[in-house]
Amino acid sequence: MMKSILLPTLLASSIGLALYGSQAIANDVLPVLAETETQAVEQNDNLLIEREQINAKPVANNSLSQLLKTQPGIAINDATASVRGGDLAPEEISLANARTHQTNYMIGGVTTNNISTFGADDKAGSIGGHTSGYFFDTELLESVEVMDRNVDAEYGSFTGGIINAELRKPTDEFTAEYTFKMTDSDWNSDPTLDEDNSDLEEPIWGDGSYQDQYQKRFHNLFVGGAINENHKIGIGISVQESDIPLIYNGERQDQGQSNTNVFINHLATLGAWELSNELRFSEFTDKRFLNDTFTDETAEDSDYENSSSGIGYTLKLNREFAQGMWRNTAAFDQLKNERSADVNYFKTHFDYRTGFDMGSEGSYGNFDETQNSTKLKSAFDFNTLYTGEVRHQLSVGVEATLHSAEGTFSEDFHTFTQYSDADGSVELDSWTTTAAGDYKADSNQYALFATDTIEWNKLTVNLGLRAEHIELFDQTVIAPRISGSWDFEAERTNRLSMGASRYYSGSLLGWALTAEKRALQTNHQDCVGTGGGSDISLNPDDYTCESITQYQATDLNQADTPYSDEISLNYDLQLGNVVMNAGYLYRQQRDGLSSIYNSELGYDELHNNIESDSNIYSLRFSNANNYAFLGGKIGGYLDLGFVDAKGSGTTTSVYDDQNDLYSGSSTEWVELDGELMRRTEMDAGSYNSDFTAGLAINTSWDQYGVMWSNFVNYEGGRKLTLFQTTDSREIEGELQSVAVMSSAEMESLVTWDTKVSWTPSMANERMTLSFSVTNLLDKQVKISTSGIDDNSKFTDDYYNQGRQVWLSVGVSM
Asked: Region Disordered: start and end of each range (predicted)?
């Protein structure tokens, strides 16, 4: 009952504040104040969050995913992260309800996606990867822009949207700023468990699945300014550390993570040329160990360390000519994922010699993968042209993106299941060996794009076209981008906009790289020891096998390029100090890829069998200028969002399996809650809650140096589809395999995040003290379930993260 009363009351009071706040708390004459420093600003259909808003928002980690998680239409994969309080890595982000690898991450307008290990699991023979190639600390960012609709034809390589982060830029005045921020598990709520996943707390899960103890420390430094009238330079450094002592062999052993970011920006004016140099570096490391995951016995030699690093450089050279502006960009990024492991085997053991016992030992292998990406772009923005009363703004450009990737196994790697029979004989089942060696793949993309912005009277029409050749799929694709708007008022405070666009996937080089890695693998089936080897022998001569199969590489040209189509509608209205935006986005995802291993052919088959249809609604109220309030200023916004999606959901027991490229399914039919339907008709079961609401109320008293930021967020319970079993049904006169599923709705959630900052005048405003709390109410509800429905032995339930307290101090000069 409390929830049903709280939400309408919250929304009603928030709308009232936005609409009638001037009568309630403003002066008789509305003051003309600077734009509120804590509201996100809508510009050209895109969400732009500037540095002031980044600083004001309380977040658990300084990551893009935590910064954007409460925005309508933006969903993050935090559904299984609640028990990993010490993690530093950002969560994957979904835009416009697309799969997470279809988000294009940019730094300074340059794509920096990890396309070689994205979406992969951290498991034997595979390195877990994130779509974003760099894990930049948001304290080092100048702004973050999210483009999820009506995206200009200049940009491609996504079916979801773009997240463009701008690193801090030097100004004319010299600036030096240092910030220290920390939290400790003793200050925060413990992870919530229930009877379904209470075993995560036991020592057998030594791989870091359960992190009840941690301490996180963030150091952040930026120094920048003008060297002379023509040159400016800025340097940013961030070091994030997390100590995570985990239970190992009955005792706490030090494990941890670190994330280091460094960049150098150089801006120069060289006569008629504008020059920008940017050097960037990021490295994330994660130290882990693997306990025996079935018994209390701990295997030796099971430590390993994962690392993801990136180093890149961008050169921008622009010049103004009589006909217009010529823009040129050249960039290079090297992304490296590697694992350092003590041993090169992972064994699961079933022992029948003295009854029954089972366990596992070993590690996930010692290898690395490197991706090199070169980006070249040249565009010309013509000066305004007029044909009568019609105004034209033309732009044309070309773009080339060159990708290559290479992996290396320095030693043979083995993963197998072993049986020890009562008579002492040894049998290996599904023994896969990956031979030491290199595997590599490359793929290039070439694009032409042109746009024309036409203005006549109150009508604006944007015509765009992007033609692109994608070598990976050996296809040339055409992506039209059309949008238009009508201004009912000359001041552009009353505008209706519409658009229709197509977007094509970027390179999925990881598919080709995985296919080449397969060529190094050999599978041995049902191997029996000949008596010459020990029970952990990795020598094929010590066994006789019923079958030996060499895997074959997959040809990606058999698949089509995934794409999406959109229709958008937006209405913007400003009445006095109140700004309203109402948006609608219909997005079709088509030809999404999945991989299915064909045992008869001996290789992975690619299928374009993932699709979804999403209706995304949003409504936003904000103030154009702050109001006077108790001697200070107050402002904020109210965001409402609703998502209705259908499509290819997961048909396995693994949560959100439809986002795993390498866990495809050939299942076309499902039985959901007793109703037979095609897979593309089921609930998509995405990261999105169907209904979300976010209220920001931010106050500041400049005379005292105090700022208080508050964010209240509501998330409706996520809708999930849970696996029960696989069965056969008669469909169109034939028996077909059907995934039997059930639906479940998780609990709704209200959280309150707050942050208080004080810049005391007695310190000459050179120091800032901050205290922030996320989930102040400490409300935790179940937000996801992974496993087999109605079988708690094989089910894990996950909750949102509880209260976290952060302290920070900053100094500047």
From this structure: 186-206
Give the whole-angstrom CA distance, residue 506 versus residue 206: 37
| Helices (runs of H) and strands (runs of E) counted in the chain | 4, 46
Any residues with CB less than 8 A from the CB of 407 and at least 6 apart, and which? 367, 368, 369, 370, 438, 439, 440, 513, 516, 517
CA angle, corner 266, sides to 261 and 270, nearest 5? 165
As a three-state string, the secondary structure of 337-349 is EEEEECCCEEEEE
Contacts of 270 (CB under 8 A, 6+ apart): 230
Strand blocks (E) in 58-205: 74-76, 93-95, 103-107, 110-111, 141-147, 161-167, 175-184
| Structural tokens at position 122 | 């951290």
SS percent in the chain: helix, strand, coil, step 5: 10, 55, 35
Instruction: Tell me how far apart the alpha carbons of residues 306 and 283 are, in angstroms, rounded to a whole number.
Output: 11
Closest of 768, 772, 775, 767 to residue 756, by C-alpha: 772
Mean pLDDT check: name the lowest of 47-51, 301-305, 535-539, 578-582. Answer: 535-539
Percent of the chain with pLDDT over 90: 55
Q: How many CA atoms lie within 13 A of 162 on its CB side?
A: 27
Domains and CATH numbers, the chain: 2-528+542-812 (2.40.170.20)
Q: What are phi and psi of 518, to 5 degrees?
A: -55, -35
**Cα(153)–Cα(481) distance, integer angstroms:** 6
Per-residue pLDDT at 253: 79
List the structure tokens of 804: 């976290």
Any idea what the Cα angle at residue 511 is, between residues 405 and 669, rounded to 5°? 170
512-526, 595-609, 707-721: range with lowest mean pLDDT: 595-609
Global confidence as pTM: 0.91
For residue 139, give the DSSP letter: G
Residues in the chain: 813
pLDDT tens track for 734-757: 888 898 988 888 899 999 999 999
CA neighbor of 581 nearest in space, from 496, 688, 487: 496
222 beta partners: 177, 236
Distance in angstroms (rounded) separating the CA atoms of residues 467 and 448:
5
Strand, helix or coil for residue 750: strand
Binned at pLDDT 50, 70 and 90, residue 14 comes out as: very low
Q: In angstroms, rounded to a whole number, what is the distance separating the alpha carbons of residues 727 and 600?
A: 22
Confirm if 106 and 133 have CB atoms less than 8 A apart: no
